[in-house]
Backbone:
């Protein structure tokens, strides 16, 4: 059971806009930055969004992140076949265990 | 270019130990830390801990305390993760990932090392 909650799957057709949600609590998303990682099949994760809504260089502006309270979301516009991947949200957790927590991942299918 | 290159796949018996290496290149090793993240087959990501390459300070995930040790060798820009008393549920791909500090993004990842624990 992951600390952050994501839908297990999402889908869209090429050109569509899809959003993936990530729900947490006051000790993680509510008080710290949210990060998003993209994991293409058979590869290591890659940083997609940092500090809630910042894109590393090289990440297309089709990807955007937002945060409100204890929830966050990743939006992908102009969906492309190469966006088919697993997406994970992550945040630092200030609770007693004091560590990084991840969502369970959302598998995005481009129909 | 900035990269992390990890050691090869390992097969271990229950109760044994494994030590995975992660060699950094293309940046100043001591200006960042290294986190270790694992992924069991078909499962999500689990953070294991972090080590500062600057001063060797560590922060381990509570569930692994006592079984994991992270170290660095600044002379070779290499980070190591040793996991002891291996169990079948430790079977996973182990990733190293660079982070500016403990709570910063994992901006560069290694290619992963498959560790299989089986009798």
Residues:
């Amino acid at each position: 059971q992951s600390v952050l909650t994501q839908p297990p799957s999402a889908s869209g057709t090429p050109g569509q806009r899809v959003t993936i949600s990530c729900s947490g609590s006051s000790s993680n998303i509510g008080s710290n930055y949210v990060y998003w990682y993209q994991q293409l099949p058979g590869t290591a994760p890659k940083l997609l969004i940092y500090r809630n809504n910042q894109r590393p260089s090289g990440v297309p502006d089709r990807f955007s992140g937002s945060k409100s309270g204890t929830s966050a979301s990743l939006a992908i516009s102009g969906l492309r076949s190469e966006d088919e991947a697993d997406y994970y949200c992550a945040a630092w957790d200030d609770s007693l265990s004091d560590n990084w927590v991840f969502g369970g991942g959302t598998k995005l299918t481009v129909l | 270019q900035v990269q992390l290159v990890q050691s090869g796949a390992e097969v271990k018996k229950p109760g044994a130990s494994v030590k995975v290496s992660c060699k950094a290149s293309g940046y100043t090793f001591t200006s960042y830390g290294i986190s270790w993240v694992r992924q069991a087959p078909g499962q999500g990501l689990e953070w294991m801990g972090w080590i500062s390459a600057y001063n060797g300070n560590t922060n381990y995930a509570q569930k692994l305390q006592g079984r994991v040790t992270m170290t660095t060798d600044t002379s070779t820009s290499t980070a190591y993760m040793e996991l002891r008393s291996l169990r079948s549920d430790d079977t996973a791909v182990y990733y190293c990932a660079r982070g500016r500090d403990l709570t910063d993004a994992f901006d560069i990842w290694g290619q992963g090392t498959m560790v299989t624990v089986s009798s």
About this structure: The interface with chain A takes residues 35, 37, 44-47, 59, 61-62, 95, 97, 102-103, 105-107, 109-112 of chain B (CB under 8 Å). Chain B is about 0% helix and 50% strand. Chain B has a mean pLDDT of 97. The first strand of chain B starts at residue 3 and ends at 6.
